[in-house]
Task: inverse folding
């Protein structure tokens, strides 16, 4: 399988394609590619029985596609943990190098890497790390764009995409931080969130790929 195909399977999985239909528009935004390129690749993945496609609804991973995507994600996220914990990479720097390393990592090496790291459960971006031969199912979460003003949330997971991660570093948003949504601008404008330390205006595009847990304040 080519790295390009693998990237598509991973992004579909990250967007929730293990259990839901993912639109071409979401894939375009996640991979920063043209709509025509996405349509062409989806056709190839359908022929290879890696995804199922429903017109006007989107694509979903088949069992074969889920198994392939889970194997790729496991290697990628293990390397991200290694780079952050042992080579002092920041969370926005790891993607590109982990992308290279995953494509040359055997299952044997991945098993040894996992053991060396102490069997981590999550990557630096909040994504689950499946065990050997295990298919991954991310916890079902809504994104920052799905909640109204006044909602308290915790940043739980972000899409593993370099441009997004660079943006989040630039506005100083980190995983596990807690915020209250204080404003949602019209026409897909920024979403403003606040905690005692800072107030951030998060672009709608970024907010749509930031998965959060709603906090119930007692």
Result:
């Amino acid at each position: 399988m080519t790295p390009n195909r693998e990237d598509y399977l991973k992004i579909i999985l990250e967007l929730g394609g293990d259990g839901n239909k993912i639109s071409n528009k979401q894939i375009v935004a996640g991979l920063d590619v043209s709509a025509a390129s996405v349509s062409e690749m989806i056709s190839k993945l359908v022929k290879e029985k890696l995804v199922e496609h429903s017109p006007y609804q989107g694509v979903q991973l088949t069992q074969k596609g889920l198994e392939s995507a889970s194997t790729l994600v496991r290697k990628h996220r293990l390397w991200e943990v290694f780079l952050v914990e042992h080579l002092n990479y920041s969370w926005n720097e790891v993607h590109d190098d982990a992308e290279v390393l995953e494509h040359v990592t055997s299952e044997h090496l991945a098993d040894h890497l996992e053991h060396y790291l102490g069997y981590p459960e999550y990557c630096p971006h909040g994504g689950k790390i499946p065990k050997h031969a295990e298919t991954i199912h991310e916890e079902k979460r809504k994104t920052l764009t799905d909640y109204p003003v006044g909602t308290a949330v915790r940043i739980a997971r972000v899409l593993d995409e370099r441009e997004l991660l660079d943006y989040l570093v630039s506005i100083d948003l980190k995983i596990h931080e807690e915020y209250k949504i204080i404003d949602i601008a019209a026409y897909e404008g920024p979403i403003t969130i606040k905690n005692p330390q800072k107030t951030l205006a998060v672009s709608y595009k970024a907010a749509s790929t930031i998965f959060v847990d709603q906090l119930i304040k007692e």
User: Anything to note?
Assistant: The chain has two domains: 1-138, 142-215. The two ends are 50 Å apart (CA to CA). The mean pLDDT is 93.
